[in-house]
Design brief:
CATH class of the domain at 49-254: Alpha Beta
Shape: flat
CATH superfamily of the domain at 49-254: CheC-like
Order of helices and strands: HEEHEEHEEHHEEEEHHHEHEEE
Length: about 425
């Protein structure tokens, strides 16, 4: 029949399809199949362990430990759960290391320093951890982690990281002795199965970089996983130099300079002043006790003479003067206090007392009454105050006069509108 294929033509077509499938399979040998998806071939250079010395790794780990300690405290206030972030481990890594550690989709949070430090770093969180933190921030119990990661999760984790890294920047400012600030973090959901090189995410991920690993625990069993912070090598080295410089300056400030020895003035031999010996009075017979200096003995006759200091065997003041003149006396030397004031230190100290309760009192007026007038008080008694009608009333905080204001009515309650702050 016209338009029909013969058996030979059908066999030829089937053989051609088989050869094409074999060719496709041959091309797929260059990739690794994971489930139903193909993992691209990872392009990453060999890791050069000499890029960071042991001292540099220790210093970077110390900086990261202090930063994450402040971040954990901030995260605790956001999720209302116990947060524990362990001591960091600093290693060198490449893109292949990151892909091997985080095969599933994860969240990359890029943090840029805008003041005090010049550089950027990336914080890597697992998808499940982001869902738990977002659910806790929205008032949940941390178990609502079904569904895909959306814009709501990215927005919430960006705000959480903004506050966490802001607290971290404050700690770094105190430790390094200079102001440090960051730009708002940018959170992005990254599917590592789609990238053969980290250069498409950030330029420094194409080579060797520093990886700081932490173990983060939230609640009893909500989160127990590893988070990573990735630093470019040049940024890690500059952070080390800044840390060492600040440490040396702190040691120099704490260690006082030795005082300069000044020669003591040569002692001048005093000219002794002749002292006439005091006449020895005749002692009373049968005296029961030694009388006090210059005070008659109780029970002794009123005419009895008083004992002087020479009789008691005590040194005379005139004899003590030469000994004081022979002593080496120098003016006291004190270390000058620095006038430098760290505003961050003051701000941090103020934060410690922000939640201390104070008693605020509004005083309408005062008057003075006698007890007899107060005893005559009865329901309906009118007490005239020292304030004139329409005059501002006083606002006191813990008894301290701080402001003036006027009385207002808010629905069914009285209030006060502050009109003047007393300086």
């Amino acid at each position: 029949m016209d338009g029909m294929l013969s058996q030979e033509e059908i066999n030829a077509l089937l053989n051609g399809m088989g050869s094409e499938s074999a060719e496709d399979n041959k091309q797929d040998d260059d990739t690794v199949t994971v489930g139903t998806r193909k993992k691209p071939e990872i392009i990453a250079p060999e890791i050069d362990e000499s890029l960071l010395s042991a001292d540099e790794r220790d210093a970077i780990g110390e900086v990261a430990n202090i930063s994450m300690g402040s971040s954990a405290t901030t995260l605790y206030s956001l999720v209302s759960r116990k947060v524990n972030i362990t001591t960091p481990v600093v290693t060198l890594a490449n893109w292949k290391t990151v892909v091997d550690d985080y095969e599933k989709p994860c969240v990359f949070i890029q943090i840029r320093y805008t003041l005090g430090l010049d550089g950027t770093n990336i914080l890597v969180l697992k998808e499940h951890d982001v869902k738990v933190i977002t659910d806790l921030m929205m008032g949940g119990d941390g178990t609502n982690t079904d569904g895909e990661l959306g814009e709501l999760h990215l927005s919430a984790i960006s705000e959480a990281m903004n506050q966490m890294m802001g607290a971290s920047a404050t700690s770094l400012s105190t430790m390094l002795g200079k102001m440090i600030d960051i730009s708002p973090p940018e959170a992005t959901l990254v599917d590592l199965m789609e990238f053969s090189s980290g250069e498409d995410i950030s330029s420094f991920l194409s080579g060797t970089f520093a990886k700081i690993s932490f173990r983060m625990q939230i609640g009893d069993d909500l989160v127990d996983s590893t988070i990573m912070q990735l630093y470019p090598i040049d940024f890690a080295k500059s952070l080390y130099d800044t840390f060492i410089g600040a440490t040396q300056e702190a040691v120099a400030e704490v260690t006082p300079e030795p005082p300069v020895a000044t020669p003591a003035p040569a002692p001048v031999a005093p000219t002794p002043t002749p002292v006439q010996p005091a006449p020895v009075p005749q002692q009373a017979e049968n005296m029961g006790a030694v009388p006090q200096m210059g005070v008659p003995q109780m029970g002794a006759p009123m005419g009895m003479p008083m004992m002087n200091m020479g009789q008691m065997g005590m040194p005379m003041m005139m004899g003590a003067v030469p000994q004081m003149q022979n002593m080496n006396i120098q003016p006291a030397q004190f270390q000058n206090f620095s006038n430098d004031f760290n505003p961050l230190q003051g701000q941090e100290n103020m934060n410690l007392i922000m939640d201390v309760p104070l008693e605020v009192t509004v005083e309408l007026g005062r008057t003075h009454k006698n007890i007899s007038d107060i005893l005559d008080f009865a329901p309906g008694t009118i007490i005239e105050l020292d304030k004139i009608a329409g005059e501002p009333i006083d606002v006191l905080v813990n008894g301290k006069f701080v402001a003036k204001g006027e009385v207002v009515v808010i629905e069914e309650s009285f209030g006060i509108r502050v009109t003047e702050i007393i300086k």
